[in-house]
Specification:
single chain, about 140 residues, mainly alpha, flat, 5 helices
Length: about 140
């Protein structure tokens, strides 16, 4: 049997990570393309508001996630972190809600809504897959 040295094992691991990142970048590009096509094909710029929700969604967790709980009991959640989770959830849900409301009010056609929702699913699925492969969680977190 051939035994790999630690250096080669590291290079193989790094090549696997690069393949994953390239695949995720392609999926993200497809999702954003679907949102741009929902605007361009139906001559309406309103579905691009969904892309704004994509880019704003991680910021509440980035800002509020750095807050440390200084309570003595250590039980319960931190109000600041919970606010970050709430705002992130609001932005994610608004990414799906904006096209639905625009289509219901007949500002955009149903086809544009479908493209925007499909693009949103692809973008959010890409983010979840990225977090699955590259986000290291502590043992204390759930």
């Amino acid at each position: 049997l051939y035994c790999l040295t630690p250096r080669y094992k590291y290079l193989i691991s790094m090549a696997k990570d690069i393949k994953i990142i390239i695949g995720l970048a392609a999926c993200l590009a497809v999702g954003l393309l679907m949102n741009i096509l929902s605007c361009a094909l139906y001559q309406n710029a309103y579905p691009i508001l969904v892309v704004v929700a994509y880019f704003l969604a991680p910021f509440p967790n980035l800002i509020c996630g750095r807050h440390e709980d200084h309570s003595f009991s250590g039980e319960g959640g931190s109000g600041i972190k919970d606010l970050g989770f709430f705002l992130t959830g609001f932005l994610v849900i608004s990414g799906f809600g904006i096209p639905a409301v625009l289509a219901h009010s007949k500002i955009i056609p149903i086809e544009a809504m479908a493209l925007a929702l499909a693009g949103g699913l692809v973008v959010y699925a890409t983010i979840l897959v990225y977090l699955h492969f590259f986000h290291k969680q502590d043992d204390d977190s759930f």
